[in-house]
Specification:
Blueprint (H helix, E strand, L loop, with lengths): L1 E10 L2 E11 L4 E5 L6 H8 L7 E6 L2 E2 L8 H4 L1 E4 L11 H6 L5 H4 L2 H11 L16 H13 L5 E5 L7 H16 L3 E6 L2 H7 L2 E6 L2 E7 H6 L1 H7 L6
Parallel strand pairs: 3-8, 3-9, 6-7, 7-8
Antiparallel strand pairs: 1-2, 1-4, 4-5, 9-10
Length: 237
């Protein structure tokens, strides 16, 4: 489904990504992990069309989308849940969710998609007419994910979904992400919580300083001594 081929991305004259290649299949849940400043958010924003690609190529569903206009990425089937949620806090939960379904194909199925989101996150049913800013952090993350799902994406991009959430809520959030994937949506997950990301994903990539430095099946990555030491705080015995 998604092929990122040797892309480079700059911030002005400063390189942010070098020669980055990843893939995500039709039904896969793929994680990209790494420390702060590794380039994870830059990568996912490039895949979402929010950063232009200096060189290399993005292909999605067999089509070259490297130079596609940013506002066309959602129509192509890609939706992003940005870091920090970025809700309209003075609008209601329902209004925020409906903003995710403004492309014509999504608007036609708005009621159906809303029901699916509320089945995934039942707590939002009683919060529909509350201001988004009045919700807890976990509930706001549910709204942000729900807003993206209202577009009916075939690929869901998640940027640090566990950021700022209590550990118990993180478990619920990752369970919901697995459910979304199990229902047929491919997921590309950028996450600093390496243990949860590797436990959840089918495959994983490790980024450092704007490059991919390791890749493989997520459970095998969890067993690598260098990953355990660098990201899980464990020493090999």
């Amino acid at each position: 489904m998604l092929e990122v081929k040797q892309i480079a991305v700059n911030y002005g004259a400063a390189p942010a990504l070098w020669d980055v290649s990843i893939t995500c299949g039709d039904t896969e849940l793929v994680s990209v992990v790494g420390p702060n400043g590794a380039g994870k958010t830059t990568l996912i924003n490039a895949v979402a069309g929010l950063h232009s690609v200096k060189s290399g190529a993005l292909r999605f569903g067999g089509q070259d989308i490297t130079r596609l206009a940013s506002h066309r990425f959602c129509e192509a089937g890609i939706a992003i849940v940005p870091e920090g949620r970025r809700l309209f806090t003075q609008m209601t939960v329902l209004e925020n969710l409906e903003l995710g379904s403004f492309i014509a194909s999504a608007k036609a199925r708005r009621a159906e998609r809303l029901e699916q989101v509320l089945n995934l996150f039942p707590v939002l049913k009683i919060k529909l007419h509350s201001l988004a800013g009045s919700l807890s952090g976990g509930q706001q993350q549910m709204v942000a994910i729900g807003r993206a799902l209202m577009a009916g994406p075939s690929l869901l991009l998640l940027d640090e979904p566990s950021l700022g959430l209590a550990p118990s809520i993180v478990l619920d959030m990752f369970a919901a992400i697995k459910q979304i994937n199990a229902q047929g949506t491919a997921v590309l997950l950028v996450e600093q919580n390496v243990a949860m990301a590797l436990e959840t994903a089918d495959r994983a990539y490790v980024m450092e300083e704007g490059r991919i430095v390791a890749e493989g099946p997520a459970r095998e990555m969890m067993d690598r001594p260098e990953i355990q030491k660098a990201y899980l705080g464990l020493e090999a015995h």
